[in-house]
Amino acid sequence: MSWRARLLTLTALVLAGLASPAPAAELCVTDDAGHEVCLDAPARRIVALSPGVTELLYAAGAGERVVGAVSFSDYPPEAQALPRVGSYDRLDLEALLALEPDLVVAWQGGNPQEQLARLPTLGLPVFFSDVDDFAGIAESLERFGELADTSAIADPVATALRAEVAALRKDYADADPVPVFYEVWEQPLMTINGEHWISRSLKLCGGENLFADASALVPRIGVEAVLARDPEAIITGGMGKADSGWLEAWRDYPRLTAVQQDNLFFIDPNLVQRAAPRLVEGTRRLCEHLEVARERR
After folding, report:
1. Total number of domains in the chain
2. DSSP secondary structure of the chain
3. Terminus of the chain with fewer CB atoms < 10 Å: N or C?
4. Residue 279, φ and ψ in degrees, nearest 5
5. CATH number, domain containing residue 32
6. Does residue 156 sit in the same domain as residue 193?
7. How far apart are CA 86 and CA 110, in angstroms?
8. pLDDT of 194-248, one tens digit each?
9. Whether residue 34 is found in the same domain as residue 156
10. 259: closest CA among 213, 227, 215?
11. Domain finish residue from 163, 191, 226
């Protein structure tokens, strides 16, 4: 081969090398436990281990990539058809592995730790989610968008959520405080402390959670404790979307300020029971209830 032919061949090989696609860059995102979760490519088969995580993934535009979820993952409606991998507090690892996920999104504060610890040993990347406020919801949307390559959907949703929360905070920044008892459950009687996201929403509206100082996130209390603190408003979601029966029981205590002023308010629990984008609408409803209580003074 002549030197000209060798030169042309060498040049062609160099150019071919330059034109070859570079290896895909590793995709790394830090989860809520401070761990760096790295994927070779955007997730295409995701399993969600809490109803709230499922809702967040769909809101981030990754719903088509969710292949499995735990029980009670019922929003949006299409999530109801997902294969189940147990409940949030007891996973069916065999069912989970059968779905061949390339990403598992776990609930740090709710899933059984001993089962979660097994997943990395089986070669499954695990992202730990622990959301308890609006900032965390927005950040989760953005990170899920990165992991699933759906940032074009997730980022605008996060931006809109931040704007809505900022508007609510501005609207109620100077609102007169309203002492509130929020009832989570009737038998046994349960409420929330100041670290719960519902309590944070109440505070944004000018509400004062009368049990904010409790040590447990969802403490059990007695009726006597509620009577002693005498809330100006009582709010509950009952056992479902249209169940306000728990409120009527408080009318047995006519000396309560909330009863005297008829400040017994129902909130759709689906709007506040999960730290997900719908919490904005739930917070708006809470604010409206507290505004009614102010008007009745």
Report:
1. 2
2. --HHHHHHHHHHHHHHHHHSPPPPPPEEEE-TTSPEEEESS--SSEEESSHHHHHHHHHTT-GGGEEEE-TT--SSGGGGGSPB-EETTEE-HHHHHHT--SEEEEETTTS-HHHHTHHHHTT--EEEE---SHHHHHHHHHHHHHHHT-HHHHHHHHHHHHHHHHHHHHHTTTPPPEEEEEESBTTTTB---TTSHHHHHHHHTTEEETTTT-SSSS-B--HHHHHHH--SEEEE-TTSTT--HHHHGGGG-TTSHHHHTT-EEE--GGGTSSSSTTHHHHHHHHHHHHHHHHHT-
3. N
4. -60, -25
5. 3.40.50.1980
6. no
7. 13
8. 999 999 999 999 999 999 999 999 999 999 999 999 999 999 987 666 667 899 9
9. yes
10. 227
11. 163
Query: Of 144, 163, 182, at which residue does a domain stop?
Result: 163
Backbone angles phi, psi at 38, to 5 degrees: -120, 135
